[in-house]
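Page 47, continued from p. 46.
Same chain as before, 274 aa.
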Amino acid sequence: MSTPFYVSPEQLMKDRADFARKGISRGRSLVAVQYADGVLLVTENPSKALHKVSELYDRLAFAAVGRYNEFENLRIAGVRLADMRGYSYDRRDVTGRGLANAYAQTLGTIFSSGGEKPYEVEIFVAEIGATAADDQIYRLTYEGRVADEHGYAAMGGDADTVSSYLKEHYTDGADLADALHVAVAALGHTANERGEVQDRVIPVEDLEVAVLDRTRVQPRKFRRILPAKLAEVLADRGPSETAPAVHSSETPTDLPADLPGDAGGEPPVAPPLS
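Result:
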């Protein structure tokens, strides 16, 4: 009788964490920035069909990096949970903390399970309140860890370099135009293969931008900022530069196996959030 192959739990968790981190780092960064009237979410996304930033509920937004099919399953599950909770109780009972905790349970269960690979995703759940002091940004990692971010946060790609730029240039209480300039500049401030930090001007058409705007009179505070408006706000930048080639799992042009029905088989379905 052959001896079963043994891997220590510590080594198994380390290998799963390394696998997830490598998948997330292959994509493009995403930043969340608090400004005077809400929360700004910006990412570089050349795809016009697949969104990385979406609405969750009235005052809640969802943003993610990593494998598109995996975080899209999580987004849909979160929307269903929010709708059910708002319908069963009250719309005010749907909170960012509740959705973040539900996502943490799901991601933690998947990461610790030995039956399937860990999700290669990181998530922002953003919520705005009546004042800027009530705004919340929750960051969830692939293993289900939750962090309460303040002011700004970055994930995916070269997140450390982007975060360092935000730390130097972020201004508390800035207006939307200033916050947008800082966020877009931070996304273009990345390190190349030799570790040299370079500043790149990202084309407006490659940006995906959305805000949670507390000044909106509608109950739903989420709105996208279209390229025409972005071009107007960012008109004072220099000439745009093409993004460097990356092996990303966020768009079908980068890694077709991400999509349902490809060689990778059907995508895993996230467990129902509860």
